[in-house]
From TrEMBL:
This is small monomeric GTPase. Residues 9-23 have a biased composition (Low complexity). GO terms for molecular function: G protein activity; GTP binding; metal ion binding. The gene is LOC127373483. The keyword Lipoprotein applies. It comes from Dicentrarchus labrax (European seabass). InterPro entries: P-loop_NTPase, Small_GTP-bd, Small_GTPase.
Length: 254
């Protein structure tokens, strides 16, 4: 299998004008949306070599989008996953859209996730809409300390249904699970909602790292299996995988 090299660093865009669906290996320059865009399918196939400037090889590439209300912790979740750090202190709301890349090893295959961090604020919604169709997976976040962010999940799911690809992988995440004193949404409520919509669910914490790696790994596994499944290989069951991993880890791992 030929290997490609992953794009380095962080890209961003404050402009809704450029199309998110052109160009290969987004963010080669890390200077904006046009440079950051990837092929419309979101996939880079294993047989097509590609080189960029981070020095990390990968076999397949997918786009993952983080969505949810402003302040639920999308940027912090991404920073925790990418850099292993927590952005404490004052809240700096994302403007437009940012992206970061991370290469993961999934069953001996190097999977590059190009992760798009969207702005939760209503005024950037049209920017987010433009990106949905290229996403292979969506991590939909609410904040367990913010009831409105949980109540808005239905609206987010409606929007996803309207703008994203039909087969997009969706996972519901109840973030800030570390905030036990401020919690207003029970885990069971999250589970119930996820069940109603048939999507996998877990609680996360960008602060403690709880389930952050697991959320991205589960999505990467699902996407990798969809793309590289051998004819006689059983279908990967994302929900079963998540449930099993949560049980194995006693539901809480970082
Ligand atoms: N306790 C706790 N605080 C968190 C966690 N994740 C994020 N925060 C805090 O929540 C605030 C918002 O986090 P962001 O990641 O910037 O939120 P966002 O979803 O990216 O917001 P927008 O960019 O406006 O859409 C910040 O003050 C973070 O420090 C978490 O897991 N636990
Ligand atoms: Mg943000």
């Amino acid at each position: 299998m030929s290997r490609k090299k992953a794009v380095k660093g962080k890209g961003s865009s404050k402009s809704p004008k450029a199309s998110p669906s052109s160009g290969r290996d987004g963010g080669r320059t890390g200077k904006g949306l046009a440079a950051a865009a990837a092929p419309s399918s979101g996939l880079v196939y294993p047989s097509r070599p590609s080189l960029s400037n981070s020095g990390e090889f990968y076999d397949i590439s997918f786009k993952v989008m983080l969505v949810g209300d402003s302040g639920v912790g999308k940027t912090c979740l991404l920073v925790r996953f990418k850099d292993g750090a927590f952005l404490a202190g004052s809240f700096i709301s994302t403007v437009g859209i940012d992206f970061r890349n991370k290469v993961m090893s999934i069953d001996a295959v190097k999977v590059k996730l190009q992760i798009w961090d969207t702005a939760g604020q209503e005024r950037f919604r049209s920017v987010t809409h433009a990106y949905y169709r290229d996403a292979n997976a969506l991590l939909l976040l609410y904040d367990v300390t913010n009831k409105a962010s949980f109540d808005n999940i239905r609206a987010w799911l409606t929007e996803i249904h309207e703008y994203a690809q039909q087969d997009v992988v969706v996972m519901l995440l109840g973030n800030k699970a570390d905030s036990t004193h401020d919690r207003v949404v029970k885990r069971e409520e999250g589970e119930k909602l996820a069940k109603e919509f048939g999507v996998p669910f877990m609680e996360t914490s960008a602060k403690s790292g709880l389930n952050v790696e697991l959320a991205f790994t589960a999505v990467a596994k699902e996407l990798k299996h969809r793309t590289m499944k051998e004819p006689d290989e059983p279908k990967f069951q994302l929900k079963e995988y998540v449930d099993k991993e949560m049980r194995t880890a006693g539901c809480c791992r970082s």
